[in-house]
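Researcher: Sequence recovery benchmark, item below. Answer with residues only.
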């Protein structure tokens, strides 16, 4: 029996600038309203992706905190939206922060995640990572180009497996890309001319469980099980239904949850919602983390530390701690504190399960 410990961060939202502090005032009607009161300027192509971006002070504090604890942690899971605009510059900034690149971006980057944790980091793209900069249309490939260089993501692939080994036990973390394909995007110009802004926004924030991608995920799951490995799925999009805003929902999420139940998947790690929601769906536990370094964090930025007890290729126990970023009253000395502890018995929520008999 082994205990494998994992950091979980999500929705870093690195921007093209090293520190973007005025996006809220520049883009929202009344400061940062967490996705409400959009103010669309004439230059939609270059302004829409500025909905959120990263807080450099929080990012530096996060890297420092994870590096200090790294000797006792086996892996780092990053569940998408590393970038905000899908540009090479912002994705490269994220890659540097995660220790996947030695090329330092602009000023403001004081810390990055160091080895050995950076060498045991697994990533999955989010909808923002797939934007075709300078537009927010889906189907971009800059994520593949940057993270392929570090063997963190397959070039043109949809599923990537990272094996975390401790003693005689292994957890196969299977990351799956459910972002929308390039041909899913409607004609933005025509849609905007017709005044159907909601139709465009719906595309920007959603993903889809495509049948070929789901089949690839199940194939990799079977391969891991044949090797006697425990399996955890990682995706950017939360599989939750009722607890997720309609503009952020994963299309065909019921297929994913049904497949997870049928395959006895114990955990799905995700982000995207910028909210912390943990649920147990018929034995499959969904751990959805809020943002970790975003300017527009809902109820503070977060990260989690999970402990998975593995015995003979099965996860037999679990516990976790969720950390929240806070500042002192003076605004100095930002730090992370435990907000709550997570156990299997505590995973109750009001979200409706979409898995039906």
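Model:
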């Amino acid at each position: 029996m082994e205990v494998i410990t994992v950091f979980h961060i999500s929705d870093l939202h690195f921007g093209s600038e090293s520190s973007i502090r005025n996006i809220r005032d520049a883009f929202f009607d009344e400061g940062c309203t967490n996705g409400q009161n959009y103010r669309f300027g004439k230059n939609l192509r270059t302004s829409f992706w500025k909905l959120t971006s990263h807080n450099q002070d929080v990012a530096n504090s996060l890297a420092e905190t994870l590096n200090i604890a790294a000797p006792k942690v086996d892996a780092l899971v990053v569940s998408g939206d590393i970038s905000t605009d899908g540009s090479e510059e912002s994705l490269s900034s994220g890659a540097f922060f995660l220790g996947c690149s030695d090329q330092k971006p602009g000023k403001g980057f004081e810390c990055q995640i160091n080895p050995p944790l950076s060498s045991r980091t697994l990533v999955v793209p989010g909808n923002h990572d797939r934007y075709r900069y300078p537009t927010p249309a889906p189907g971009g490939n800059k994520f593949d180009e940057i993270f392929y260089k570090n063997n963190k993501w397959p070039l043109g692939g949809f599923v990537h497996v990272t094996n975390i080994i401790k003693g005689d036990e292994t957890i196969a973390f299977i990351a799956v890309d459910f972002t929308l394909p390039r041909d899913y995007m409607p004609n933005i110009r025509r849609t905007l001319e017709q005044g159907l802004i909601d139709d465009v926004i719906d595309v920007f924030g959603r993903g889809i469980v495509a049948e070929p991608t789901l089949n690839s995920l199940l194939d990799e799951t079977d391969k891991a099980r044949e090797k006697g490995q425990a399996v955890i799925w990682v995706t950017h999009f939360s599989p939750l239904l009722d607890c997720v805003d309609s503009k952020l929902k994963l299309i065909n999420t019921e297929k994913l949850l049904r497949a997870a139940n049928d395959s006895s998947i114990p955990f799905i790690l995700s982000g995207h919602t910028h909210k912390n929601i943990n649920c147990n769906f018929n034995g499959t536990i969904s751990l959805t983390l809020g943002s970790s370094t975003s300017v527009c964090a809902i109820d503070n930025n977060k990260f989690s530390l999970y402990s998975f007890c593995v015995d003979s290729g099965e996860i037999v126990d679990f516990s976790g701690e969720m950390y929240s970023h806070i500042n002192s009253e003076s605004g100095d000395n930002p730090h992370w504190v435990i907000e709550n502890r997570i156990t299997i018995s505590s995973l109750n929520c009001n979200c409706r399960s979409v898995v039906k008999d």
